[in-house]
Specification:
By secondary structure, the chain is α+β, with helices and mostly antiparallel strands. It contains three helices and six strands. Helices cover 40% and strands 45% of the residues. It has a six-stranded mixed sheet with strand order 2-1-6-5-4-3.
Length: 149
């Protein structure tokens, strides 16, 4: 009887560990989705402090035009008065969590004004997030313009 109880307890412990890992990954996925949404909203409102809290100090940001920016350059771009996004709409994203790293792929549409001219773009993006000290921050972001048909 004792062997049966020990065997049952052992099987329960062995099978519950994967569920705990799956729950943590699902929780991280939800959190990353929320962070992506918050980033879009903060960038649209040109809220530099909020954007700064979402990206790592080592950020590498590659924009759809091929320009490469570090964190300071990116934040300056977010705050630039000559460019202002009116709408930044996420058409959908997929999050892949790998422990303390996550990769997000998706498509967004953006409209606004840049140097007095209206623009409308659609772009595919990849964001890489790292979790340090229980905080997720984006370390790399890359977008590629999707040509209008």
């Amino acid at each position: 009887m004792n062997r049966f109880i020990l065997l049952t307890l052992g099987l329960f412990l062995c099978t519950s560990a994967p569920f705990a890992q799956e729950n943590a990954a699902a929780s991280d996925e939800i959190q990353i989705r929320q962070l992506e949404r918050a980033w879009n909203q903060a960038e649209t409102k040109q809220e530099v402090k909020e954007v700064a809290n979402l990206v790592d100090d080592t950020l590498v940001y590659t924009d759809y035009d091929g320009s490469l920016m570090n964190k300071a350059e990116y934040l300056k771009w977010v705050a630039a008065p000559e460019q202002k996004a009116d709408h930044l709409y996420d058409e959908g994203l997929t999050v892949h969590v790998y422990g303390n790293a996550a990769v997000v792929v998706g498509i967004y549409r953006e409209s606004g004004t840049n140097k007095g001219k209206h623009y409308l773009i659609r772009s595919r993006y990849t964001d890489t997030w790292i979790k340090r000290d229980a905080v997720w921050r984006c370390v790399a972001s890359h977008s590629t313009l999707i040509p209008a048909k």
